[in-house]
């Protein structure tokens, strides 16, 4: 198509792709941001900018220069600690050890396939969207398993295969932050949020936990499954029409007997693990139970809540190990070690990102810029009367727009959390609410970003059924999901706020 004949939508997509491709890699971006913080600290410190510390009445805080002798000593002396101390680093790597075994033995893939293939035909759309949303517990496995499976199932049922692919892709990506279970996403974002909250109130941050959004994300599964199903059957599928392609119908491969056996025993091992975990929490004198308050307080404010990372790791590792032993994908301890090693190797980019991101976050906090910006930002928003729901909507829209250009949820939140969490806390909104608003916006525009990591893979899957499928066609197919998910999920969050329901265990709406 000639450039002059392109419509506004296509030109916009082209512009997004050009701008996004010119952005530095997230690793480089954090290095640049860290350097800019150093320059700003040297430029702003002589101006004498100061604010009263929100958590310490009468204590004035000034911007600290990190390019003087004392600052340079800090930069070189803290570099290793900034890396090791980057909030999500350790907890994400520990969590992925367990999830990685469950994924690499084939347990997650078999579970997703078995669930989708066991659903009656009339509920297949619901099942695909639901399976996609739940697949986020295994990080990116859903991107590889479900979209091509969805296309195959729809084709076998005489429906348009691209509608099946779109339904699965929407669930996997646009619903990434919704789940009945806690996942690596909760761990990664939660640690960044806790670190950002400590800028204003370390005591408050101390009692936060990574399950801070669990009630809301669990309820979101049902809402997003309904929205995804409705959009597929009422908007996307009618628009695609009947499938006229030449692709031959393939026979769907169900689970083998050994896979079924593996799933059964993995389920048994998970049940045993959950029972043992309950015994560590529920009895009155249980070792992971708290000692103060009523029964609910003793569970919410307990060693159990601060032990969620190793518990999640174990509850993924044991079923993965059992499944691997049954299916022979694990034959001995060397296989387990190899699978864990492969998982850590796949985290290489995250580890490198953690180094530069760790420097940026540490410098930002050390210079007191986060605290000063939080106080001034809150005062400005108050002066223009931008608070409450309008403020939340603006934050969601800003995040959704940025997400089109920077796809990494952890990279964006590492940049945004030190700025927005303190501002929202100064306005009376909890870090837990700010994180949840971020998650709503971050997930819903994944499927319309041509820079999303798996976008090219989804196009490759789609081209099997439509040779002309390109970036613009796929985005136009996925745009209704993005819009309805964003609007529906935002309305749900607003209603949740109006009813004053906690977002999770010890996860209040207001600070």
UniProtKB/TrEMBL annotation:
Keywords from the UniProt entry = Membrane, Transmembrane, Transmembrane helix
Keyword DNA repair attributed? no
Instruction: Name the domain of life.
Output: Bacteria
Record flagged with keyword Transmembrane helix: yes
The regions listed as transmembrane in this protein's record are 27-44, 83-102, 114-135, 211-231, 263-284, 304-326, 347-364, 384-406, 413-431, 443-462, 483-503
> Cross-referenced InterPro entries, in alphabetical order?
AbgT (IPR004697)
For this protein, the record's PANTHER family field holds: P-AMINOBENZOYL GLUTAMATE TRANSPORTER, P-AMINOBENZOYL-GLUTAMATE TRANSPORT PROTEIN
This one is known as AbgT family transporter
Q: What is the taxonomic lineage of the source species?
A: Bacteria, Bacillati, Bacillota, Bacilli, Bacillales
């Amino acid at each position: 198509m000639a450039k002059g004949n392109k419509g506004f939508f296509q030109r916009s997509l082209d512009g997004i792709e050009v701008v996004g491709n010119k952005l530095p890699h997230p690793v480089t971006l954090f290095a640049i941001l860290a350097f800019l913080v150093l320059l700003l600290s040297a430029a702003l410190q002589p101006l004498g900018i100061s604010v009263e510390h929100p958590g310490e009445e009468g204590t004035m805080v000034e911007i600290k220069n990190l390019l003087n002798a004392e600052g340079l000593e800090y930069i070189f002396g803290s570099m290793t600690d900034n890396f090791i101390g980057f909030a999500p680093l350790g907890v994400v790597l520990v969590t992925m050890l367990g999830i990685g075994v469950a994924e690499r033995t084939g347990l997650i893939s078999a579970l997703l396939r078995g669930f989708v293939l066991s659903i009656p035909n009339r509920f297949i759309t619901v099942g695909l969207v639901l399976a996609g949303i739940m697949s986020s517990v295994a990080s990116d496995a859903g991107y590889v398993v479900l979209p091509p499976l969805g296309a195959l199932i729809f084709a076998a049922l005489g429906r348009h295969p691209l509608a099946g692919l779109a339904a699965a892709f929407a669930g996997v990506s646009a619903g990434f932050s919704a789940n009945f279970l806690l996942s690596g996403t909760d761990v990664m974002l939660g640690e960044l949020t806790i670190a950002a909250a400590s800028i204003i109130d370390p005591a408050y941050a101390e009692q936060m936990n990574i399950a801070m959004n669990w009630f809301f994300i669990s309820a979101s599964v049902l809402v997003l499954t309904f929205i995804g199903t409705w959009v597929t059957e009422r908007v996307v599928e009618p628009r695609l029409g009947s499938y006229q392609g030449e692709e031959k119908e393939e026979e769907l491969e169900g689970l083998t007997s050994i896979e079924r056996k593996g799933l059964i025993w993995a389920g048994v091992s998970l049940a045993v693990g959950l029972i043992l975990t309950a015994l560590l929490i529920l009895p009155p004198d249980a070792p992971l139970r708290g000692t103060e308050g009523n029964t609910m307080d003793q569970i919410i404010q307990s060693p159990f809540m601060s032990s969620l990372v190793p518990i999640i790791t174990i509850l993924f590792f044991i079923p993965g190990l059992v499944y691997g032993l049954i299916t022979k994908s694990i034959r001995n301890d060397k296989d387990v070690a190899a699978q864990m090693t492969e998982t850590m190797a796949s985290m290489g980019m995250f580890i490198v990102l953690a180094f530069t991101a760790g420097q940026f976050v540490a410098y930002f906090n050390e210079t007191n810029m986060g605290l000063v910006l939080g106080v001034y930002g809150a005062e400005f928003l108050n002066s223009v009367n931008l608070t409450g729901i309008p403020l939340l909507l603006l934050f969601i829209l800003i995040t959704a727009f940025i997400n089109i250009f920077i796809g990494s949820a952890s990279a964006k939140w590492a940049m945004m959390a030190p700025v927005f969490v303190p501002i929202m806390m100064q306005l009376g909104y909890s870090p837990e609410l700010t994180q949840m608003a971020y998650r709503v916006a971050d997930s819903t525009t994944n499927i319309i970003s041509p820079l999303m990591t798996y976008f090219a893979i989804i196009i490759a899957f789609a081209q099997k059924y439509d040779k002309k499928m390109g970036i613009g066609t796929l985005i136009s197919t996925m745009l209704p999901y993005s819009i309805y998910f964003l609007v529906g999920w935002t309305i749900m969050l607003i209603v949740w706020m109006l009813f004053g329901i906690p977002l999770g265990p010890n996860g209040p709406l207001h600070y």
